[in-house]
Amino acid sequence: MKEKIKNTLNTRLGFFGLLAILYWAKSILAYLTEFNLGLESPIQYFILFINPIATTLLLLSIALYVRRTKASYATMLFIYFVMSVLLYANVAYYREFTDFITINTILGAGKVSSGLGKSTLKLLEPQDLLYFIDFVILFIALGMKKIKLDARPVRARMALAISTLAVMVFFGNLFLAETDRTGLLTRTFSRDYLVKYLGINAFTAYDAVQTYQTTQVRAQASPNDMQEVQNYVDDHYAAPNDEYYGLAKGKNVIYIHLESTQQFLIDYKLKDDQGQEHEVMPFVNSLYHDDSTFSFDNFFHQVGAGKTSDAETLLETSLFGLNQGAFFTQFGGKNTFEAAPNILQQTQGYTSAVFHGNSGNFWNRNETYKHLGYDYFFDASYYDVNEDNSFQYGLHDKPFFDQSIQYLEHLQQPFYTKFVAVSNHYPYAQFTDEDAGFPIADTGDETINGYFATANYLDTAVEEFFNYLKDSGLYDNSIIVLYGDHYGVSDGRNPQLAPLVDKDTDTWDDYDNAQMQRVPFMVHVPGQEKGGISHTYGGEVDVLPTLLHLLGVPTDNYIQLGQDLLSNDHDQIVAFRNGSFMTPEYTFYNQTLYNNETQRPITLPDDEFETLQQKAQKQLDISDKINNGDLLRFHSGSGLNPIDPNDFDYKNQMEKMLKISETAEKDTSIFGENNNESTTDLYETKTYQEYHPEVAEQLEKEQEDKEKE
Ligand code: GP9
Ligand code: MN
Fold first, then answer.
1. Which band of pLDDT confidence, cut at 50, 70 and 90, is reported for residue 111?
2. 486 CA: nearest ligand 1 atom
3. Nearest to 464 by CA among 382, 379, 405
4. Backbone angles phi, psi at 412, to 5 degrees
5. What's the pLDDT score for residue 192?
6. Cα(first)–Cα(last) distance of the chain, in Å?
7. Does residue 30 contact residue 95 with C-beta atoms inside 8 Å?
8. Is the CB of residue 522 less than 8 Å from the CB of residue 481?
9. Rounded to whole angstroms, how far apart are CA atoms 50 and 199?
10. Which of 431, 514, 467, 119 is nearest to 283 (CA)?
11. Which atom of ligand 1 lies nearest, measured to the CA of 308?
């Protein structure tokens, strides 16, 4: 046996196999002990265990084509060395940044002020030797001829067979990955996902290709390209409405991101199996009907594959996400923006912050937010997230708002903040166990069934947060903006939902699908009563100018593609990201035009239809031009100073805030205003059953009855 192994190691293929196994072992070591990849199921473990194989075999097999003995071994060892260094570099980098190394990180390494340089030594751990000890052993073994070099070249056919096998393994791996996580490559959620499903090498290669592509387009863009953009923006500008302009001047802005919340949930009551009705979002409904709220019932999401992050792009910049993939991941860490946090900081002195209980590199937020100009980003690392209070997308909404207060109270006012809730997220199985409380719908689709319970949970979380805002006094100085980012029930599932929205599964069509793309949009301005429910047609791209005008900030010097929803000049055509569109009269969805009144397909005179379609398409094209070419770097008319992302660092933010409080002429944080006493106790949170003792009682009784039986 020992002899056999020794003989094998003395062949080129044997040595090749040894290196492949060693690299596999090192990868698995890193996966399990260093990276936090959020493994959730046996299949994910399986994919993780096989994911180093394909790229390792492929890369090492290059050396098999080299015929000369020493050159072949040297090539193999060199490739092995580079792979090991890449792996280890990621291990060290991850300890500091909880993220993987991108090509841009490597290219910009010198520029990263918070980079590895200073603290490299601190990042080293004793177990790191494991990543390199093999080199020592290998060199000794080779030097002492314990492993002998094999002078016989590997036959070209054999080498080719191994490379081919590697490619096949790769596609098998990719197939499994896609089955577990559809859209892995096209949507690029996060680097964690790519590493978890395809490994470090594949992730780096993928990132290199993407970086190359975006750099090309960017390099070809020139200041002249701005002219067309400027013309469009000038023609498209909708002047503010005097009645509302500056209504919320100087107030804090609090965004509440209502994950996957659709407009049909507003005022919706779910019937349980006894026929009793349960209001899904009673608190949000009360805001919706409040005179202090500007509500919209023909407001549409406009996201593409970037989902949440596309909604963020639209709201923060009044530009669209991309036609393919996620804008945040592809351009968020590179482009120049004229985004809300930056505009409000530079023109009105606002402090800005995002709160989100998921890891910061999801959707590349940790990089993108710097470029948008966010002063602070409190991601999962700032929260106590554990098995009981979270799910695959992060911390649940109630503990999320609760734990956010400790940071919020230290922000200087006025602030611009965003709370990205997440519990109401696919698969909506978060609160569907027996004692969750809110009834579970009864359709043929599990996903739909849980949707109402998670939405109800979100509603209560928002209510608790509002209670805190009121008790702490923040409420009166703030405006609160609520929006649904995109659909929660997809078109494919909608027919199953049909009966719940008084429609027929059999006659459900694309007209109906299109109507379901409505999402809530509300601006709650405490202390004024000019609100109400507007029927204006609009979308997420329109939010930024609407908000800025309410805050009394002019927008005509910025490149924004949307229009103030409260302006009399607002043009009521809503472009969906895929080129579909919606107007008060027509719905164009999946290449069919419908009349909104009859809800039936309709044919318009060609030119009339084309005018509409081109109008929608033009808005998308201009957006793509700006984003792909990074054109805003050429726009000097904004009056904004360029942002240096290196000025932003989302570590030790508590210390940073406290220091600002100390040194500020006047500490305007809520904590400061409260005589340096914390307001965290003012946040009250309860479970569904604590809110509904009758349900708890009922469940207890059922339990008892069961036991008696
Ligand atoms: C993840 C969360 C969900 O952090 O914001 O994003 P989505 O899957 O809806 O795009
Ligand atoms: Mn979302």
1. very low
2. 9
3. 405
4. -70, 140
5. 85
6. 63
7. no
8. yes
9. 9
10. 467
11. 10
The string of DSSP codes covering 572-629 is: --EE-TTS-EE-SSEEEETTEEEETTT-SB----HHHHHHHHHHHHHHHHHHHHHHHH
Cα within 13 Å of Cα(31), Cβ side? 25
Task: For residue 310, report the distance from its CA to the centre of ligand 2, in Å.
Answer: 9
- Residue nearest ligand 1's atom 3 by CA: 308
CB 98 within 8 A of CB 381: yes
Paired tokens of 339: 């985004």
Q: Whose CA is nearest to atom 9 of ligand 1?
A: 308
Residue of 214, 308, 454, 555 marked catalytic: 308
pLDDT tens, residue by residue, 21-50: 999 999 999 999 999 888 889 999 999 999
Residue 439 DSSP one-character state: P
Question: Are 491 and 513 within 8 A, CB to CB?
Answer: yes
What's the CA gap between 466 and 612, in Å, rounded? 41
Question: In whole angstroms, what is the distance from residue 82 CA to residue 201 CA?
Answer: 10
The Cα–Cα gap between 328 and 624 comes to 13
Residue 121 pLDDT: 65
Sign of the alpha-carbon torsion through 321, 322, 326, 327: negative
Distances (CA, A) of 39 to 44, 184, 344: 6, 15, 40
Any idea which residue has 């690392």 for tokens? 381
> Do residues 252 and 479 touch, judged by C-beta distance below 8 A?
yes
Q: How far is ligand 2, taken at its centre, from the CA of residue 150, in Å?
A: 56
| Any ligand 1 atom below 6 A from CB of 187 | no
Q: 370-399, pLDDT tens digit by residue?
A: 999 999 999 999 999 999 999 989 999 999
On whether the CB atoms of residues 453 and 440 are closer than 8 A, the answer is: yes
543/98 Cα distance (integer angstroms): 32
Asked if 308 is an active-site residue, the reply is yes
The Cα–Cα gap between 184 and 206 comes to: 12
CB of 403 sitting under 6 A from ligand 1? no
Q: Residue with structure tokens 């577990």?
A: 180
Largest Cα–Cα separation, the chain: 90
Four-point Cα dihedral 397, 325, 643, 312, nearest 10: -30
Instruction: Tell the residue number behind the tokens 């109800």, with chain if given.
Output: 456
Distance between CA 216 and CA 407 in Å, rounded?
Answer: 41
379 vs 359: CA distance, rounded Å: 6
List Cα–Cα distances, 270 to 275, 423, 499, in angstroms.
9, 19, 11
Helix (H) or strand (E) run with residue 159 in it: helix 156-180
Ligand nearest the Cα of residue 301 is 2
SS3 14: helix
Q: How far is the CA of 646 from the centre of ligand 2 (A)?
A: 28
Do the beta carbons of residue 478 and residue 469 sit within 8 Å? yes
541 lines ligand 1 (CB under 6 A): no
What's the CA gap between 295 and 314, in Å, rounded?
A: 18
Structure-block tokens of residue 693: 């003792």
